[in-house]
Amino acid sequence: MAFVERKGEIWRCQICGNVVQVIEVGGGQLICCGGPMTRVSSGPDRRSRSDK
User: Fold this and answer.
1) Where residue 46 falls among pLDDT bands split at 50, 70, 90?
2) What's 33's DSSP letter?
3) Residue 51 has pLDDT above 60, yes or no
């Protein structure tokens, strides 16, 4: 079971294909079509922000 951990994560529903991006972390699990969504990206790399 995976939970939202950081802003910018990308999640996909394995049933309908919906894709969402986290804009505010609430600490919960994303559910779509009655089941948990799958994280496909962990969000922006924190190191890249400090390099700019």
Assistant:
1) low
2) T
3) no
Which residue from 18, 10, 15 is spatially nearest to 39, judged by alpha carbons? 10
Look up the pTM and report it.
0.77
Residue 16 is classified by DSSP as T
| Summary mean pLDDT of the chain | 87
Q: Cα 31–32–34 angle (5° rounding)?
A: 85
> Domains of the chain, with CATH numbers?
10-45 (2.20.28)
What is the 8-class DSSP label of residue 49? H
* CA dist., res. 41 & res. 52, Å (int): 21
Q: Is the separation of the CB atoms in 49 and 25 below 8 Å?
A: no
Q: Dig out the tokens for 33 from the structure.
A: 């079509």
